[in-house]
Amino acid sequence: MSLLETLGAILVGLIILAGAALGLNSAFSSSKLGETEQNLITLRMQVQHMFSGSNDFSGLDNDLALSAGLVPKPFVKGTDLRNPFGGTITLAAVSGTSAFSISLTQIPQDECSKLAKFQTDAWLAVDINGSDATGGDVSEIVTACSGSSNTITFTAR
Predict the structure, then answer these.
(1) pTM of the full predicted structure?
(2) Percentages helix, strand, coil for the chain, rounded to the nearest 5?
(3) CATH code: domain of residue 70
(4) Domain containing 56: what range?
(5) Which of 112, 111, 113 minimizes the C-alpha distance to 139?
(6) Residue environment code for 26-52, b if the CB has 16+ CB neighbours within 10 A, otherwise e
(7) Fewer beta carbons within 10 angstroms: which end of the chain, N or C?
(8) Domain count, the chain
(9) Which residue would you say has higher pLDDT here, 43 or 137?
(10) Burial category of 114 from C-beta neighbours within 10 Å (exposed 0-12, middle 13-18, buried 19 and up)
(11) In the Cβ-directed half-sphere of 124, how many Cα atoms lie within 13 Å?
């Protein structure tokens, strides 16, 4: 085998390896997104159940949610709430209303638009980086998710 053939074989191998790595990265990204969506539903339902019968969500914060066992285990990292993308999760009562918010930070651009469109009818409001995306308009969501590290705030009752 000549040097040229050997280099060609190495090049083909590297291309195949790069393609496999991209596929693996995509699979991990989809897994993180699915995990986030599932745990977001659970968190919302746990908070709603805990506060059922109350007039509002006064007192709701991360410490209360952790102490009450409302937070799905994959969102708990020590004493902090973290999403699978490495960002924080913050729970808060929305003052002046009978609603609460769940904010997730450091959401990558590709996952941001998918997560913001997740169960749009289940949320009172969806905010991306300070822009209202409640209507679920795809072009607005994609525009709002323009950065590599995004914050999405979901508001529920």
Answers:
(1) 0.80
(2) 50, 20, 30
(3) 3.30.1690.10
(4) 3-156
(5) 113
(6) eeebeebbeebeebbebbbebbeebbe
(7) N
(8) 1
(9) 43
(10) middle
(11) 11
Q: Which tokens belong to 28? A: 């991990």
CB 129 within 8 A of CB 48: no
Task: Check residue 147 and give its pLDDT.
Answer: 87
- Cβ contact 88:60 at 8 Å: no
pLDDT tens per residue, range 64-118: 999 999 999 999 999 999 999 999 999 999 988 899 999 999 999 999 999 999 8
DSSP per residue over 45-108, as a string? HHHHHHTTTSSS-TT-SHHHHHHTT-S-GGGEETTEEB-TTS-BEEEEEETTTTEEEEEEEEE-
- pLDDT value at position 11? 65
Residue from 68, 25, 34 nearest 50 by CA = 68
87: left (phi over 0), alpha (psi -120 to 50) or beta: beta
